[in-house]
Design goal:
Elements lengths: L1 E7 L2 E6 L10 E10 L2 H9 L1 E2 L2 E2 L9 E9 L11 E4 L2 E2 L5 H4 L10 E2 L13 E5 L3 E3 L6 H20 L6 E5 L3 H12 L4 E5 L3 H9 L5 E3 L6 H8 L4 E6 L4 H10 E9 L12 H6 L3 E4 L7 H9 L11 E4 L3 H9 L8 E4 L1
Parallel strand pairs: 12-13, 12-15, 13-14, 15-16, 16-17, 18-19
Antiparallel strand pairs: 1-2, 3-6, 3-10, 3-19, 4-5, 6-7, 7-11, 8-9
The chain binds zinc ion (ZN) (2 copies).
């Protein structure tokens, strides 16, 4: 089969690659239709690492995907060849302490689609996944929408961890697909006002126009802390940090009111970040890490399907597999107003 293979930093070659086969009776072979390029893929592509995961080449990336079932293992009952599906990329064991505690996202034996050391990714014509990771979608839903359910599910998980958001004021620092997803979900849950920031002007505009931000601004151009506190003088209840940058973490601490909650959604490139501990302590701020998502793909799909959440505006660019290099370059450099690059193998 053909696959977009990362062969070194910043270099993707489309070439022949071994076609995966069903090994376990619970598996399905999927014909990939659409793959979203995620910020974590861009880190792997350009930085050779994400957090403490170091790259090995060659590798096939891609974990946000929608597909058509090609073949099912004997044990798979809810799917048949030809079914259109959205894919949950995290494969958990179901039996460890974390899975039994309802935390499959921190499963002790987790393997993730398109993770360099775990499972070969979806930027290929075919992948094999457990049947239970595949959610049938209706004919009304597009493959692009089904793909965008994955980043939306991260927004949903982050919002769930933040608690009841009805009537709350909050900021989202970083308005890429994850930040935008958080915006859509939190406004859907009744947040009173959402302030959004990004260093990319096109994203600031999209945050205001499409995601419903009460105000959106660019920290390279304005003092975003002052602008937001002018509008919310007592400070914010919740801040979602969605870009993994030290300056945004500092802004978050300045923006929060006493007792407020900071959700760490973005992935910093550096192995360590720092906080002004006196501010954290005096304001008794709460820090909450967000590890991908926890069983939120199904609910995110239903939100898109029944029209409660509109994600189409994020699918700004689509590339054939042969143009995967261009897809990554365009997304990495935020060219052409790109929000999400989709690749269609
Ligand atoms: Zn992702
Ligand atoms: Zn487990």
């Amino acid at each position: 089969m053909r696959a977009a293979v990362l062969t070194g930093p910043g270099k993707i070659e489309v070439r022949d690659w071994p076609k995966p086969a069903i090994k376990d009776k619970s598996d399905v072979l999927l014909r990939v239709k659409t793959v979203g390029i995620c910020g974590s893929d861009l880190h792997y592509f350009s930085e050779e690492r994400v957090g403490d995961t170091i790259m090995h080449y060659p590798v096939v990336l891609g974990h946000e995907c929608a597909a058509v079932v090609e073949e099912t293992g004997r044990g798979v009952k809810h799917l048949k060849p030809g079914d259109r599906v959205a894919v949950e990329p995290a494969v958990s064991c179901g039996s460890c302490d974390q899975c039994r505690a309802g935390r499959p996202n921190t499963c002790r034996a987790l393997s993730f689609l398109g993770h360099p050391k775990e499972r070969s990714g979806a930027l290929a014509e075919y992948v094999v996944m457990p049947g239970e990771n595949c959610y049938p979608i209706s004919s009304r839903m597009t493959f692009a929408q089904a793909t965008l359910a994955e980043p939306l599910s991260i927004g949903l998980h982050a919002a769930n961890l933040a608690g009841n958001l009805k009537g709350k004021t909050l900021a989202i620092l970083g308005s890429g697909p994850i930040g935008l997803s958080v915006g859509l979900i939190t406004l859907g849950e009744g947040a009173a006002a959402v302030y959004m920031t990004d260093k990319v002007e096109a994203r600031v505009r999209v945050a205001a126009r499409e995601a419903g931000a009460a105000w959106a601004g660019n920290p390279l151009e304005v003092d975003i802390v002052k602008e937001i506190l002018d509008r919310a003088p007592g400070g914010l209840d919740v801040v979602f940090e969605c870009c993994g940058q030290q300056e945004a973490l500092d802004q978050a601490v300045e923006l929060l009111k006493p007792g407020g909650t900071l959700l760490l959604v973005g992935i910093p490139l550096e192995g360590r970040i720092s906080f002004d501990i006196n501010r954290l302590r005096r304001r008794e701020l709460r820090l909450q890490n967000v590890r991908r998502q926890n069983q939120c793909v199904g609910p995110a799909l239903r939100m898109i399907e029944d029209g409660r959440i509109r994600v189409d505006f994020m699918a700004t660019h689509t590339f054939p597999l042969e143009k995967a290099q261009k897809a990554f370059d365009t997304a990495l450099h935020y060219r052409d107003g790109i929000i999400k690059a989709l690749v269609t193998p």
